[in-house]
Amino acid sequence: MNKARIRWHILVFLAPAVIVYTAVMIFPLFNTLRLALYTRIEQERVFAGLDNFRTLFFDPIWAEQFWNALGNNFWFFLVHMLVQNPIGIALAALLSHPRLRFAALYRSAIFIPTILSFVIVGFAWKLILSPIWGIAPSMLDAVGLKSLFAPWLGKEEYALTTLALISVWQFVGIPMMLIYAALLTIPEEILEAGEVDGITGMSAFWKIKLPLILPSIGIISILTFVGNFNAFDLIYAAQGALAGPDFSTDILGTFMYRTFFGFQLQLGDPHMGSAIAGAMFAIILLGVCIYLFGIQTRMRRYQL
Amino acid sequence: MNRSTLKLALLSTTLVAGMADAQDATLIIESWRNDDLTLWQDKIIPAFEAENPGIKVKFTPSAPAEYNAVLNSKLDAGSAGDLITCRPFDASLALYQAGHLSDLSDLDAMSNFSDVAKSAWQTDDGSATFCVPMASVIHGFIYNKDAFEELGIEVPTTEAEFFAALDKIKEDGSYIPMAMGTNDQWEAATMGYNNIGPNYWKGEEGRLALIKGEQKLTDEAWVAPYATLARWGAYLGDGYEAQTYPDSQNIFTLGRAAIYPAGSWEISGFNTQATFEMGAFKPPVQNAGDTCYISDHTDIGIGMNTASSNPEAARTFLAWVASPAFAEIFGNALPGFFPLSKTPVALEDPLAKEFASWRDQCESTIRSTYQILSRGTPNLENDTWGASVAAIKGTATPEELGQKLQAGLASWYEPQQ
């Protein structure tokens, strides 16, 4: 008579979240992946198997655009990893310094751009950097460095890096906040014990604090990865769907948008668009898996 | 008791709402002309509503660059308005083939338009017309008359005179010779390549030969405009690489530039912004006395959403759009958009008159990439944007650009293979 009772309350409590999440996330995701397997011939939707992916990866015209977008995406990510995260960590370390005055003010000031809309950030920076109305040329002129100014957003070689740095400016507050919170959880006793052993100042940061915040840095890296490979808004707001000049700022998000919805005389192709979305999903999934199984499980954790 | 009151209340509101519907059909217009919102609201719609009591019209434009994407999503979702402003050629043809636009061939007022005017909104065999032609736009150059007088420059008619004028303005230094940027890319193709190009490929002759596969984009006539565009780079303002379309408009209307490569659609905006007198000249020909060709592009039509809940009212509106009365209001309310109806319309705006007068002096053509040639992938129109920018910046030679475009076109367009 030891019949297991069905615990209805678990189902009831889970249901709302599961239903909402399935309706707005899981179903659209799988439907998009399904859409990628079809194509349209003479107004009829026909099953095409993996043809769209074959076109995407092997047709020279599509493949060139795809690899260009993917390469740009990696550069976009790399700039964030090399600039945004180290600066975020450095700012957090400075902010957590007990003798720093106005720490709360700096913290809010640095975090504010994060809550701004992409459209505002894109538009504001476009104006700042504008060779015609912008303050960047006149500011450089004031310190005698006018010759360093170039119309960065309009040059193939600088445009993507410029946009990546704008994005860094906008989002540097996020790693700063996360690391700051991690640093605050480090108990004073550990640092004091270190001091007794002669570890002070910078070496306290490198030898005690950094190992303790490594898991947070890992989380930030993976958030940056997912965010960057899903990026679209800033490029679209600043450079439009053609991601000019000459596709030098084209990332997977803008490539997908242009293909899916069409652009100017180019008609939208939801099936190829879904194929690109599927490829983006696979890339992000792969990146997250590498992190979860390759890095996170091997990361050493300390019990505080 | 309580419940039946509620029922009654609900019933009565539906009835009232239903009656209001029967009296006032509301038509919603989808458009990309957000610049014209006030003109529609103040002039065009009141004129229609005065003649047709019982039909209310709402003009709900979206941003030009997003229009096609927004419209397609709305149509697929069934939430689009009753009347659809039609882009010329394939974008609208695709909507007709997908069953989103009604066949309007049987609309009586269609006889007010020439075949050329209707061609932008017909099936390839011409059997069905699905949008009422509204207007075309003409390309050319708008110039600052004060600046030209100050520097003693005559209006150029040949290419040599054109570049001599640019040199003179540059030498003087008080004006930027030409206001155009390459940031948004399309100006380089639309106001650059397709503005000066028809003089090289002889308008319709070259355009149709390209469609038939008798000419190639690597031919001299199609490559030479890129070589001319390459010379423009030196006369554009500092940092033109990051200069956007609104930047260029502002630079010109603030009086900082002398020449603006234009489409006639700029006229109404420029009239309100600029404080100096403006003139216009047509794309310069290579040698004095050559036949001139202008791009007189069928740009706007209007059609009916098949899912419209007020098809009768929508047809009434479309018949009115096709009438000379509308052409008169539209042509003068929006100087620079030239009505396509057969009855000539008396234009009042001097700048618009100047543009329209070229129709009598030159051969008209439409933009080379619009009909049929931008159906496949890669998209010839989008590629032309990139190529025109590359020509101006000098990042590729005209011959390389011609080869690249030809290879792209030949990859999917049979007559070119």
Key descriptive features of the protein:
heterodimer; A: 304 residues; mainly alpha; MetI-like fold; two-stranded antiparallel sheet; 13 helices; 4 strands; 69% helix; 4% strand; flat; B: 417 residues; alpha/beta; D-Maltodextrin-Binding Protein, domain 2; 2 domains; ten-stranded mixed sheet; 18 helices; 47% helix; globular
Q: What's the helix and strand layout?
A:
The complex is a heterodimer of chains A (304) and B (417).
Chain A: H1 8-35, E1 38-41, E2 44-47, H2 51-58, H3 60-95, H4 103-115, H5 118-129, H6 135-142, H7 159-171, H8 173-184, H9 188-196, H10 201-229, H11 233-239, H12 252-261, E3 262-263, E4 266-267, H13 270-295
Antiparallel strand pairs in A: 1-2, 3-4
Chain B: H1 2-23, E1 25-31, H2 37-51, E2 55-61, H3 67-77, E3 83-86, H4 90-97, H5 115-118, E4 132-144, H6 145-151, H7 159-172, E5 176-178, H8 186-196, H9 198-201, H10 204-212, H11 220-232, H12 245-253, E6 257-263, H13 267-273, E7 278-281, E8 293-304, H14 311-321, H15 324-333, E9 338-339, H16 350-361, E10 363-365, H17 380-393, H18 398-410
Parallel strand pairs in B: 1-2, 1-3, 5-6, 8-10
Antiparallel strand pairs in B: 3-8, 4-6, 4-7, 4-8, 4-9
Helix pairs in contact in B: 8-17, 11-17, 11-18, 17-18
